[in-house]
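Chain A, query sequence.
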Amino acid sequence: MNDMSDEWKVPKALHDVTMWVHPEGRVSGSLFVHLKSRRFEGPQRPLEVLNNGRRFLVLQHQSPDELRFYNRSAIVRVEYVEEVPHDASGMVAQRCQVHLMDDCLIEGTMMKSLPPDRSRLFDFLNLEDEPFMTIYGEDGNVCMVNKSYIVCVKTPDE
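Chain A, predicted structure.
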């Protein structure tokens, strides 16, 4: 017998992440992502889940194995490893150092498709529709930072 509720389910995949949540601390689990992104080729990216405008997101917690619903405004940052390198064609890259309220320092590169006259570091930070920004680090490490927890951003000393 077919369960009617199966007709309403949206197929999703799990994407492993580590989150830092205030005041809980480090949390390991998986975000539920759509199999097809609306903005990019391939599956939905964690940044799309974080910036979708909903107040809560769903995390399949690792230990204990349970579903949790986290308030997006309590999430300080989310990290994961991107197995397939991010396609940077047509993107503007900005190196940066991000200082967070918990004394964490994150270094890397922000990449965005922005018009040339709006591609300063200041412009990256002030995108109104994106409460989280992505910083690409070494070896495929990706860190998505809640802009509300940023104290200061600067260009790295060369």
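The longest helix spans residues 46-50. The chain has two domains: 4-78, 92-154.
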